[in-house]
């Protein structure tokens, strides 16, 4: 017995794949956004001034990324900064 694939079957398959990809991307974005924090949050976590945060960045004590003029810091490094 042959079963034929219809256009509706293909649409359903495409919607399923797209839905799963969206869920995966949302989950990945949530995980990534928690790993990197803006400078203001980093300063609050460390209870330091903007100049002190800049000094840590310049001296290479904190890993950072500059995206569109804003600095982002790795949360794990912030937490481990003074535990060494």
TrEMBL record:
Q: Which UniProt keywords apply?
A: DNA-binding
Entry's Gene Ontology molecular function annotations: DNA binding
Q: Where on the tree of life does the source sit, at the highest rank?
A: Bacteria
What this protein is called in its record is: DNA-binding protein
What does the organism's lineage look like at the top?
Bacteria, Pseudomonadati, Bacteroidota, Flavobacteriia, Flavobacteriales
